[in-house]
């Protein structure tokens, strides 16, 4: 709980996303690329979402060539994995080049260029990668995502564990869905995570859609979440 409080405090300091990138039309491609790369590297959701967030913020500030965007994407992945993963999970240069070839990325990475880009990214973020994303909240919220008094299709839930497992899959689907559209960046990360849980409960026909316990834990009411949920379910 203390860690989540720290994340929520840091959330208030996040830079404003303006969607000003001249390459915003290519954003979807690079988000998909980072998703594929992180999956092949078996990185945790927090590393993947941090890499995407770093790229979004950097693209929002600069006009970058396509080649440099590829290098920047790999550098964001490296920084995020170094911040969120254990040392043995950080991708090696040879592995990244193999993945680049597999993904038809016409770039040969070298240590010098990657290090230079990592340094540039760190300077842009004032050497602070303590940037909360929805992935940093989701497991905390999922812990109380199902309660004993909840109903499934109007009936008492016979297996909380089974329902919770299904709901977790839905929540992670919505979590990854939220990075596909840059307009989600106008919501707070904690709100997006809460909306993922609520949207999952709606899809699974669990009532009520949002409980008092979840509202107390997340500090968000249904009214706070409604717009974000609508974007997820439309």
UniProtKB/TrEMBL annotation:
Which keywords label this protein?
A: Cell cycle, Cell division, Cyclin
Q: Give every Cyclin-like domain span.
A: 32-123, 161-234
Q: Which SMART domains match?
A: CYCLIN, Cyclin_C
Report a single Gene Ontology molecular function: cyclin-dependent protein serine/threonine kinase regulator activity
A Pfam family annotated for this chain is Cyclin_N
Q: Which GO terms describe its biological process?
A: cell division; mitotic cell cycle phase transition
Domain of life, source organism? Eukaryota
Q: Which residues form the Cyclin C-terminal domain?
A: 132-234
Asked whether the keyword Cell division is assigned, the reply is: yes
The answer to whether keyword Cell membrane applies is no
Which protein are we looking at? Answer: Cyclin-J-like protein
The organism of origin for this protein: Strix occidentalis caurina
């Amino acid at each position: 709980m203390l860690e989540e409080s720290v994340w929520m405090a840091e959330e208030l300091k996040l830079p404003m996303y303006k969607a000003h990138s001249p390459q915003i039309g290519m954003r979807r491609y690079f988000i998909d690329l980072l998703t594929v790369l992180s999956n092949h590297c078996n990185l945790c959701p927090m590393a993947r979402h941090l890499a995407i967030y770093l790229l979004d913020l950097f693209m929002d500030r600069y006009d970058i060539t396509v080649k440099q965007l590829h290098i920047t994407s790999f550098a964001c992945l490296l920084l995020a994995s170094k911040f969120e993963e254990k040392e043995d999970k950080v991708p090696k240069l040879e592995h990244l080049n193999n993945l680049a070839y597999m993904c038809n990325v016409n770039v040969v990475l070298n240590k010098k260029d990657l290090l230079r880009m990592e340094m540039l990214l760190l300077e842009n973020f004032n050497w602070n990668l303590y940037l909360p994303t929805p992935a940093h909240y989701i497991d905390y919220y999922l812990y109380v995502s199902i309660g004993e008094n909840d109903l499934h299709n109007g009936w008492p839930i016979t297996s909380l564990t089974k329902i919770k497992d299904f709901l977790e899959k839905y929540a992670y689907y919505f979590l990854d869905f939220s990075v596909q559209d840059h307009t989600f960046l106008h919501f707070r990360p904690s709100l997006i995570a809460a909306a993922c849980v609520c949207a999952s409960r709606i899809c699974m026909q669990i009532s009520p859609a949002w409980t008092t316990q979840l509202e107390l834990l997340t500090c968000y009411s249904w009214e706070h979440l409604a717009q974000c949920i609508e974007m997820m379910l439309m």
